[in-house]
Design goal:
It contains 6 helices and 16 strands. A 7-stranded mixed β-sheet has the order 3-4-5-6-7-8-9, with helices on both faces. A 5-stranded mixed β-sheet has the order 11-10-12-16-14, sandwiched between helices. Strands 1-2 form a two-stranded antiparallel ribbon. A hairpin with a 5-residue loop joins β1 and β2. It is 27% helix and 25% strand. The longest helix has 22 residues. The protein has 2 domains: 138 residues, Fructose-1,6-Bisphosphatase, subunit A, domain 1 (Fructose-1,6-Bisphosphatase, Chain A, domain 1); 100 residues, D-Maltodextrin-Binding Protein, domain 2 (3-Layer(aba) Sandwich). The chain is an alpha+beta fold.
Amino acid sequence: MNDSSNPVAASGHAVPREPQDDLHLLEASVREAGTIALKFFGGDYKRWNKPGGSPVTEADLAIDNFLKEALRRARPDYGWLSEESLDDPARLGARRVFVVDPIDGTVAFMKGRPHFTICAAVIEDARPIAGVVFNPAADECFTARSGGGAFLNGGPIHVGLRSEIAGSRLLGNSHAFADWPPVHVENFSSIAYRVALVAAGRFDAMVSLTSKRDWDLAAADIVLSEAGGALVGADNCSLSYNRASAVQGATIAAGPGLIQPLLAELAAKNSLKTRPVSP
């Protein structure tokens, strides 16, 4: 990538950028990172467990290094938060912050399953203003910016309009839906991919009862909101990003007609207490 979009003018001051400019940068960078992922995918590469037990591979680190260099070269005044980078508290004082997950769904990646994504978002005032969720194995690129709508490979997407749980197509751990009305349940390793699939109307909702991190959700959050849906916590409030702690609790992603029925069903089942994050 070239760095012609660098926002530092000759005076040395940052040049204001529109979310559309940031989205173009994110998409170009993430798509290029996808080519890196595919060089490793299905091949032989180093892998190990981080402290806490979650898996990581040399592909995660290669993509993280690439995105950090490409994005911060173009926007040196933006903060940085990534799953595979040491957290720098300076991000808390930045007007805008990149939030990146080099590979969301590392387990799927290691097993050769095409359900992993590369995620990147720009956060301003605790909310995403631009985001990209890219599944390079399936060549599915979900994009959105504030007020600009949501897209899959350039075509507009919108959430479904279902308002009843019975008969819904849901994403999540099947154990979470025990004793529910009859529903169809599937699951994918990448939570960002699950949220994006709800945004595209392929599924009606996603429920996650385990803790997640900002980088798992931020990019998919704006894709879903611009597609007419919402990603909320157990309190039915939008998520806040780039706080001192990047931990998020239980989350629900759905179209507007299903949020309240899902919250009510989960409350009735006493399921809304967030469980520890799974590797």
